[in-house]
Amino acid sequence: MSQTFFISDHHFGHKLIIDFENRPFVDTEEMNASMIAKWNQVVNKEDTVFHLGDFSFLNKEKTQAIVSQLNGYKILILGNHDRGRSRTWWLDAGFDEVSAYPIIYKNFFFLSHEPMYMNKQMPYVNVHGHIHGQKYEGLHYYNVSVEQLDYSPVSFEQIRDAVVVNEEQ
């Protein structure tokens, strides 16, 4: 049975992010290889992955080489560092779908790159990235930046169950 996963902010090829976010890598080559391996440890070929932005700082050829190594049907929601390139650029790089706007998934998740304002009456959980090692407080936010997830995609069920458990406390 196929699963759906979420992750964001890989910043493939971005040398400075290693220091900015205290990532445990010596250089971008080690970082890229480790993040590809962690992705493929949890994602199977028949799974779907929503990448919530800031995927790669590399050129199209190198980005394509990374995307082609990653398991799953890959959907990209453009992040602030992705928006300088067109939807077509990202599709050519190997993503199966690309959205410039947030997506509502299963009437439960509001998928966006940046955290969106969610008041207490909102029926959604905002699954987002962008803020890397930081976390928004409250039941309506779930940060899927790689730093929050040990660089591995997280499943729909894991997020849903975490939110439901927190709601009951």
Automatic annotation (TrEMBL):
Which taxonomic lineage is given here?
Bacteria, Bacillati, Bacillota, Bacilli, Bacillales
Q: Where's the Calcineurin-like phosphoesterase domain?
A: 6-145
Determine the domain of life of the protein's source.
Bacteria
Q: Which residues form a coiled coil?
A: none
Gene3D superfamilies xref list: 3.60.21.10
Mention any Pfam family matching this sequence: Metallophos
Protein's name in the database: Metallophosphatase
The record, for SUPFAM superfamilies, names: Metallo-dependent phosphatases
Matching InterPro entries: Calcineurin-like_PHP, Metallo-depent_PP-like
